[in-house]
Write a structure and sequence with these properties.
The chain is of the alpha/beta class. It has a 5-stranded parallel sheet, sandwiched between helices. A two-stranded antiparallel ribbon has the order 3-4. Helix 3 crosses helix 5.
Length: 148
């Protein structure tokens, strides 16, 4: 039924729950698994130099290190269950990348996401990434909530 499952990971507890659910589905359907992390470029500071546009400050490196750590942890969890997970660090608006760009470019047929992630301020200001993905994607989405 599902051939390629994508799981956006941000280091949150709910993303971990989504990964655990996705691993069950990967086993059931013998699907490919890709773990993704999206670096939100709108939060980066750029400077214009004589050679072009460059990132400034250590924030970019911090985000990249965090993304690598989160994805490595996800890969390790998958590996403990005998599943090989591919990873991708992406750049852009997470809502757009998760809902449209990555699924379209990689033939994803299921996105498994946590109900909410790490960015409480963004949720207050513009709504959650999960809600936006559910509203805008053409791909099936499974939203995983914490068990009550």
């Amino acid at each position: 039924m599902y051939q390629h499952i994508a799981v956006p990971l941000d280091g949150s507890h709910n993303a971990q729950l989504a990964l655990n659910e996705a691993l069950k589905l990967v086993k059931t359907f013998n699907a490919k698994l890709t773990l993704i992390n999206v670096i939100d470029d709108k939060r980066l500071i750029y400077s214009v130099t004589s050679t072009g546009i460059a990132h400034t400050g250590g924030y970019y490196e911090e985000l990249t290190t965090h993304a690598k750590d989160v994805l490595a942890e996800g890969q390790a969890i998958a590996a403990k269950q005998g599943i090989t997970a591919e990873t991708a660090i992406l750049h852009g608006n997470p809502k757009q990348v998760i809902a449209e760009d990555f699924p379209h470019d990689h033939k994803v047929d299921l996105i498994v996401m946590g109900k909410s992630g790490t960015d409480a301020m963004d949720r207050l200001l513009v709504g959650s990434t999960t809600a936006s993905v559910v509203r805008t994607t053409q791909t099936n989405v499974l939203v995983v909530a914490e068990a009550q």
